[in-house]
């Protein structure tokens, strides 16, 4: 029981990370109609910039603004130099141009920081583990991530549902051309949305640092899972990103934690482990295929 | 007529290549040329649905990898002497392995296509990617066939009467298959079937109104395209004497798309040019600097943002200029 609860919390933590990335991606997707494979690169940029500043200054908290700033600035630069030219192009050109960006960013990071993974320090107040239920010890840093993610979710909810910018974002993801026809400066809206998405990606990257290794290619590992979240949730829907992100995070974590053990009861251990890892890696893709076959536009598609 | 002469010159040049590389003493060039021919076929297969049919498949490396694994699995059963599933004996005869690889890749394409084609747009891109990733992880977890490390194929498949260990002989076999492949592809794109596929890309609703079942035609095209990629994969496994899950990783699918775009979407020889340009760039940039992916990314970005129609359009523009100059 304790083990199950612990894995559920781990799943929640992974799901929150996925949500932070997917929220930005789904807006960029839904409003601008751009498939941005380089979103994972922004996550990596945030992680490296924050970790670098944290290591130089010795303070975890000083790394945070550095991560957010670096990711947001990089995002704005990409938007101005590359993405802006892709709005009118088809998906194929978008996939390729942003794929090229991935190659360039990965190599830039190798040139600046080398290939070996960088490890980050935990903030002093969040080391060790706390007893959150009798017998259930859990690292407080992971709880911090869950808390931060939920806070962002609430913040986004108010931003999207209660502000003027949010109204334009909702309108934009339902019918882009109509918003433009009504005289809204859509280009400015695009820039704001892209910057916000980059900011959230940077936040996710920096928070992931102490748990996962900060290394080249870290963006691609989580990018595909993020795309699965966006597609399952429905393109352009923050609510969909939240539900699908948490759901996938929990399912993926639980599959990885429990499937090999369950298979071991019916087959030899070494084969069970290999097959268990394989099937649990396939899990999220299988889920996406199933969801798309039943609801071709995802669970909470905007404008459907 | 002019195109035929050009094609003939190209074939003759490619046929003379082994002799030329031997004279120059650059054996690695022959290996590069073999890879270009094989990837050219894979990219042209993808281009058939992507360029002609308008279906952006982001999981085409899956069929490439399946073709490779058919060769690898048959070879490993041939070496161990144990039949596959207890009934199918392994083999190392290319006359058997290539058709089988094409068939199996086609079956997978039929299953994946039948499900994926129910969606469209971004969802189609992502669902093809999802199926490819599933197959990738499936082969990673298959410990019996090497798991992550892949299978080493002890020797290249045999063809009666030929010494397939000789690099030049293998090159000629690949070249012959490539010529047949492109001849078939040209016939296919000019057939009524090819016209229907292009029509569906331009306006699916109108084609449906004319009375053409779009879904079925798209599925046929998807299966043919998967079979082409499977053929290329089977040849690649023979060339490398190796098959691994990396061959179906999503970045490989991305590379195939790069070749298509680089060369020119929806043209017959564009993907072939693209494969050549990509592999040559990769080889020479890698020799020049360890940071070659940066340069490759930059070139790719410039091509995507700056040119329309890729290398094929560039060649056409240049020949048009030259022709005007001659007049």
Detail the topology: elements first, then pairings.
The complex is a heterodimer of chains A (about 300) and B (about 325).
Chain A: H1 2-32, H2 39-57, H3 60-81, H4 91-113, E1 130-133, E2 136-138, H5 140-162, H6 164-174, H7 176-181, H8 186-208, H9 218-233, H10 238-264, H11 269-294
Helix pairs in contact in A: 1-5, 1-6, 1-8, 1-9, 1-10, 2-3, 2-4, 2-8, 2-9, 3-8, 5-6, 9-10, 9-11, 10-11
Chain B: H1 2-24, H2 27-52, H3 61-80, H4 94-116, H5 121-141, E1 151-152, H6 167-190, H7 192-202, H8 204-210, H9 214-240, E2 242-243, H10 250-263, H11 270-288, H12 292-306, H13 310-326
Antiparallel strand pairs in B: 1-2
Helix pairs in contact in B: 1-2, 1-6, 2-6, 2-9, 2-10, 2-11, 3-4, 3-9, 4-9, 7-8, 7-9, 10-11, 10-13, 11-12
Provide structural commentary:
The complex is a heterodimer of chains A (304) and B (327). Helix content of chain A is 75%, strand content 2%. Chain A contains eleven helices and two strands. Chain A is globular, with a radius of gyration of 20 Å. The model of chain A has no long low-confidence stretch (mean pLDDT 85). Chain A is mainly α and 304 residues long. Chain A has a single domain (2-126, 139-294), classed as Orthogonal Bundle (ABC transporter involved in vitamin B12 uptake, BtuC). Chain B is mostly helical and 327 residues long. Chain B has one domain. In chain B, 76% of the residues lie in helices and 1% in strands. A two-stranded antiparallel sheet of chain B has the order 1-2. In chain B, helix 1 runs antiparallel to helix 6 and helix 2 (27-52) packs antiparallel against helix 9. Chain B starts with a helix and ends with a helix. The mean pLDDT of chain B is 86.
């Amino acid at each position: 029981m304790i083990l199950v609860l612990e894995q559920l919390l781990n799943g929640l933590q992974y799901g929150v990370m996925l949500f932070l990335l997917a929220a930005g991606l789904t807006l960029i997707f839904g409003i601008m109609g751009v498939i941005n494979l380089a979103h994972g690169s922004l996550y990596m940029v945030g992680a490296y910039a924050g970790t670098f500043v944290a290591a130089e200054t010795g303070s975890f908290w000083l790394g945070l603004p550095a991560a957010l700033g670096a990711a947001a600035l990089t995002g704005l630069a990409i938007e101005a130099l590359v993405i802006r030219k892709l709005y009118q192009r088809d998906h194929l050109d978008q996939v390729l141009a942003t794929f090229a960006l991935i190659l360039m960013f990965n190599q830039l990071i190798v040139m600046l920081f080398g290939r070996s993974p960088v490890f980050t320090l935990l903030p002093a107040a969040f080391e060790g583990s706390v007893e959150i239920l009798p017998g259930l010890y859990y690292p407080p840093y992971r709880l911090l991530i869950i808390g931060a993610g939920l806070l962002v979710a609430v913040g986004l909810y108010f931003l999207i549902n209660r502000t003027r910018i949010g109204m334009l974002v909702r309108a934009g993801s339902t019918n882009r051309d109509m918003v433009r026809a009504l005289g809204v400066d859509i280009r400015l809206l695009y820039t704001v949305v892209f910057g916000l998405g980059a900011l959230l990606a940077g936040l996710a990257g920096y928070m992931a640092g102490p748990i996962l290794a900060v290394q080249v290619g870290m963006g691609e590992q989580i990018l595909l899972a993020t795309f699965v979240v966006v597609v399952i949730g429905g393109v352009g829907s923050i609510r969909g990103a939240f539900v699908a992100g948490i759901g996938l995070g929990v399912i993926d974590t639980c599959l990885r934690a429990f499937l090999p053990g369950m298979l071991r009861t019916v087959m030899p251990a070494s084969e069970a482990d290999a097959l268990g890892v394989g099937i649990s890696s396939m899990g999220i893709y299988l889920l996406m295929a199933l969801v798309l076959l039943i609801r071709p536009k995802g669970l909470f598609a905007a404008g459907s | 007529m002019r195109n035929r002469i050009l094609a003939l010159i190209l074939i003759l040049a490619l046929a003379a290549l082994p002799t030329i590389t031997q004279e120059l003493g650059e054996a690695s060039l022959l290996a590069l040329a073999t890879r270009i021919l094989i990837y050219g076929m894979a990219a042209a297969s993808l281009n058939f649905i992507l360029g002609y049919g308008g279906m952006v498949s982001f999981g085409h490396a899956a069929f490439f990898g399946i073709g490779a694994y058919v060769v690898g699995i048959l070879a490993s059963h041939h070496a161990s002497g144990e039949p596959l599933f207890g009934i199918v004996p392994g083999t190392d005869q290319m006359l058997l392995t290539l058709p089988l690889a094409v068939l199996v890749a086609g079956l997978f394409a039929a299953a994946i296509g039948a499900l994926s084609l129910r969606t469209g747009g971004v969802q189609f891109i992502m669902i093809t990617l999802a199926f490819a990733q599933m197959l990738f992880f499936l082969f990673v977890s298959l410990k019996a066939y090497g798991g992550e490390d892949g299978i080493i194929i002890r020797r290249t498949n045999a063809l009666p009467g030929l010494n397939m260990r000789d690099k030049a002989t293998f090159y000629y076999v690949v070249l012959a298959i490539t010529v047949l492949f492109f001849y078939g592809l040209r016939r296919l794109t000019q057939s009524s079937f090819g016209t229907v596929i292009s029509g569906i890309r331009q306006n699916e609703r109108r084609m449906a109104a004319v009375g053409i079942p779009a879904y079925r035609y798209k599925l046929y095209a998807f299966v043919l395209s998967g079979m082409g990629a499977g053929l290329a994969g089977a040849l690649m496994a023979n060339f490398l004497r190796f098959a691994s899950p990396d061959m179906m990783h999503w970045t490989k699918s991305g590379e195939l798309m790069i070749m298509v775009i680089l060369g020119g979407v929806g043209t017959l020889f564009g993907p072939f040019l693209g494969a050549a340009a990509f592999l040559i760039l990769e080889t020479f940039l890698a020799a020049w600097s360890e940071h070659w992916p940066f340069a490759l990314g930059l070139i790719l970005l410039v091509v995507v943002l700056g040119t329309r129609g890729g290398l094929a359009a560039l060649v056409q523009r240049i020949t048009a200029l030259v022709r005007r100059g001659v007049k």
